[in-house]
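Continuing the batch. This is chain 6 of the set; chains 1 through 5 are on the previous pages. Same settings as before, nothing changed between runs. Recording input and output for traceability.
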Amino acid sequence: MNDFNEKLKDLLYESIDYLIMIAIVAAVVVIIGWRLDILFHKDGVNPPTRVVENELEVEDESKDIATGQNEDNDQEEANENGKDDENTLDKEDDQKDDRDSAGDNVDRPNPSDEVQSRMVTVDIPEGTLPSGIGSILEASGLISSKNDFVLKAQEMGLDRNLRSGKYEIPNNSSLEEIVKIIANKN
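Output for chain 6:
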């Protein structure tokens, strides 16, 4: 019996190191599994963004739509009244010529001006890392790659100065301008 106790003690002393290692690994796995949901919390990754367009652009589009509908109605009435398609085409050409000559004296908005006037409102939550800010900007269509944004912020030395808050950013801003806006370094 004494020999059995000695062998049991030897086995216990030899295996205690392995039992402690298994207990430590199990504790680490439990703690990581418990905190892992916080690291990959879905609500914090892609917060909703709003796109706000200038009112002038919206008014211009509604005017274009209204004039387009009136031209369609004129064509339908002409076809219903039995006029030839040639007369309709001549009438349309005359209207286009009238619009072109009248438009020489009137300043028309340049399509590039409409693109420049579009502002995108971006809401960056507090505590968001640069890669998260890049994801938000990418989702709102301001940048093409969040990695390019992070690299540009690091290159400019502003990666630690990026701030949370609501920003109105023109949609045609360069990557450098966007970094400066979010770092409040205008």
